[in-house]
Amino acid sequence: MDNVPVIDLSKAPGERAAWDRPALIVYLWAACELLFVTNPWQISSGLRVRVLRAFGAEIGDGVVFRPRTRVKFPWKLHVGNRSWVGEGVWFHNQDHIYIGHDVVISQETFMTTGSHAHRRDMALITRPIHIDAGVWITSRCVVLGGATVGRSALVKPLTVVFGDVPPNAVVSGDECVVVGHRFDRVDDAQDSAQT
Question: Fewest 10 Å CB contacts: which of 101, 131, 151, 180?
Fold first, then answer.
């Protein structure tokens, strides 16, 4: 199999293409992330939020960030009011991640906006992630760039999320299959009450 090509990674383009900030800011953020955000001994969610905001994150009121959170670039993170971010969540956000209000991102979930998929030159491709209001992404899920999760959807543990998840859907598995609805539809409940 010596005739199968190998990509010379030293020539891969775009090593710092997603930074959007001077190197000094990126390095300063890395130190602050380690001390104040990822640090499991630092127990204050409020301090995490203040440090993230200081580096450009847009974070609403009443947001909870648990220990061991990782954020690649806080200036590309947007979180709505009253959302909860569980322990060990990793936002590998080389592009923007938009999280609505009252969203739960549970433990050890990995959200990544960057990929090298299908590029023979290994160039970085980024796409944003959109998580609508009321969504619950349960533990150890992987959310890929370009994903949109609709209002009040529920993502079961260990699911790989890509593409569009409909509002109120319950999705599961490597193929992100709809397996049910999180809440009874309001219209269905009103129709039943009238009959």
Answer: 180
Number of domains in the chain: 1
Can you tell me the distance from the alpha carbon of 124 to that of 13, in angstroms, rounded to the nearest whole number? 7
Residue 36 lies in a domain: yes
Q: Answer yes or no: is 11 within a domain.
A: no
- CA–CA separation, 122 and 11 (whole Å): 9
Q: Which residue has the tokens 């992330």?
A: 33
Query: Which structural domain, as residue segments, surrounds residue 47?
Result: 20-194
Q: Which helix H or strand E contains 25, and what residues bound it?
A: helix 23-32
- DSSP string of 76-89, one letter each residue: GEEE-TT-EE-TT-
- From the list 36, 160, 62, the residue with the least C-alpha distance to 110 is 160
pLDDT at 119: 63
Q: Is the pTM of this model over 0.85?
A: yes
pLDDT digits (tens, 9 = 90+) for 8-58: 777 776 667 778 899 999 999 999 999 999 999 988 999 999 999 999 999
- pLDDT bracket for residue 72 (50, 70, 90): very high
CA-CA distance, 12 to 1, in Å (whole number)?
Answer: 23
Tallying the residues shown for the chain, one arrives at 195
CATH code, domain carrying 146: 2.160.10.10
* Cβ(167)–Cβ(184) below 8 Å: no
End-to-end CA distance of the chain: 70
